[in-house]
Amino acid sequence: MKTLLYRVILRPEAEGGYTALVPSLPGCITYGDNVDEAIAMAREAIELYVESLVAHGEEVPTEEGTLEYALTVNYAEAAGVDA
């Protein structure tokens, strides 16, 4: 059994809960009512995604060689528009 490492991005939703995105696995997106549930759902989604790739003889993407940066940008707000 091979161990794989994937980044999971958790985005809080306005209506509550968190959307979990796995950038290295296109379309691998799930949701949880809280952080712990979103992470558990992401783990299950990743496992099923990878299992499907293997079953279909497709390449399994990894995070190997991936660089990650967080950038801060400034922008001007439009006059009279609440942000």
Please explain how this structure is put together.
The protein has a single domain (1-83), classed as Double Stranded RNA Binding Domain (2-Layer Sandwich). With 83 residues, the chain is of the alpha+beta class. The radius of gyration is 17 Å and the shape is extended. It has one helix spanning 35-55, and strands spanning 9-12, 18-21, 29-32. β2 (18-21) and β3 form a beta hairpin. The chain has a 3-stranded antiparallel sheet, covered by helices on one side.
Layout: helices, strands, pairs:
Elements: E1 9-12, E2 18-21, E3 29-32, H1 35-55
Antiparallel strand pairs: 1-2, 2-3
- Which CATH class applies here? Alpha Beta
The oligomeric status of these chains comes to: single chain
* Number of helical stretches of at least 4 residues: 1
CATH fold node name: Double Stranded RNA Binding Domain
**SSE succession:** EEEH
Average pLDDT, to the nearest integer? 93
Could you tell me the strand content as a percent range?
5-15%
Compute the separation of the termini in Å. Answer: 48 Å
Count the beta strands: 3
Low-pLDDT segments, ≥5 res: none
Proper CATH architecture: 2-Layer Sandwich
Tell me roughly what share of residues is in helical segments.
25-40%
Which strand order do you get reading across the main beta sheet?
A: 1-2-3
Summed up, the domain count is 1
Overall geometry: extended
Which structural class matches the secondary elements?
alpha+beta
Largest sheet composition:
3 strands, antiparallel
